[in-house]
Structures are given as structure tokens and as C-alpha cells.
Amino acid sequence: VASDLALADTLTADVVGIVVVPDVTNPVLDSLARALDQLQRDSTILIVTLGYRGKLLPELRHVPLDPRARIAAIRRIVRRLHPDILLPAEDPYGVGERLVGRLQLQAWEEYLTDAARAAKSVDRRIRIGLSASAFDSRDSALYAWGAGPASPIDILGFSFFPDRRGAEALDAYTRTADRW
């Protein structure tokens, strides 16, 4: 982390993004907060994404989403790191589906709403983000919900990853993102 942050500082990065797992400990958050202190926080945007357990070996088994533990982690993260933007779930229908299984749209909506409420109860200025990466009908429905007026989502975005089709897939994903 220290090396990455030193590089970000050298490059005068405008945005720094980190991914943490739900069971991140308070000492790790404190250490991360100290490392982040070197950033020019008045001019550098900090984005924190809450990832998932089991990311190293996702094919072994699905890990339950456990909204209660994730909400507790969000409160700790916001309290200690003070991110500008929080993504309560890393790509729900991308990496999220691979690790926690296919959740119904309503489950994601409820979790994201609860996560936004928890984060904003700690810091009213935090912005809540949602990133689409699967570009299928489920991702489209979640993205449309996030863009809706009743949604707690402040920022919508996309994650682009090549798949077995290479550049052809990235072109298709980019066209889909443009339509959305």
C-alpha cells in the first residue's frame, strides 16, 4: 500500500481507489488511514470499494453476502478512511455474482439502500457509487434502479474487463454502456 500510494503521489493522481474485504480489521483500517494521510486529500478523490471474502479462490464455493457484516464494515470504513465515494459492492453482477452467487435484483436494491443509509449516517457528504460490469439484463435493471429518483445511488459507473472474446467484447460493452 505504501509503495502504491507513493507512486500515486509521484504521479499526482487525481483519484485513488482501494478495495477492502468485509472482515477488514480495525488495525488494518488504522494502518491504511495513516498511509492515506500522505495523499493531498484536498485535491485527491478517495474511492473505497467493499469487495468480498473468497476472492482468491472463488471457484471453490460461494460465500454468503452477509449484509449485516458488510454494513458494520461500511460504518468502520467510513469512520476511519473518510472516502469521498463508497461503492458498497464491487460489481454486483460481475465479481459479486461469481463470489456470492446470483442474487435477485431486490436483494441488491435492499442491500445498497441499507449500505447508503449506514454510510451517510456516519458522513452525510459521502457519495454512494454503483458499478456495472456484466452488461446483461440483470445489470441493466440494477443500473436503471440506481439511476432512478428514489435510489440512494449518487454515482453510476462501469467496469470494463476483457473476456475470451477480447477486443470484440470490450467494444460491445462500451456500446452497451453508451446506450445505458
Would you give an account of this structure?
The longest helix is centred in the middle third of the chain and has 18 residues, at 105-122. Helix content is 46%, strand content 14%. Strand 2, helix 3 (67-81) and strand 3 form a beta-alpha-beta unit. Helix 3 (67-81) packs parallel to helix 5 (105-122). The chain starts with a helix and ends with a helix. Strands 1-2-3-4-5 form a five-stranded parallel sheet. With 180 residues, it is an alpha/beta fold. The model has no long low-confidence stretch (mean pLDDT 87).
Radius of gyration: 16 Å
The largest sheet, given as strand count, sense and whether it forms a barrel, is:
5 strands, parallel
What order do the helices and strands follow?
HEHEHEHHEHEH
Number of strand elements? 5
With strands numbered from the N-terminus, the spatial order across the biggest sheet is 1-2-3-4-5
- The N- and C-terminal alpha carbons lie at a distance of 35 Å
Please describe the structure with a list of short key phrases separated by commas or semicolons.
5 strands, 46% helix, single chain, globular, 180 residues, alpha/beta, five-stranded parallel beta sheet
Please render the helix and strand layout as text.
Layout: H1 2-10, E1 15-20, H2 26-36, E2 45-50, H3 67-81, E3 85-87, H4 95-100, H5 105-122, E4 127-132, H6 137-147, E5 155-158, H7 167-179
Parallel strand pairs: 1-2, 2-3, 3-4, 4-5
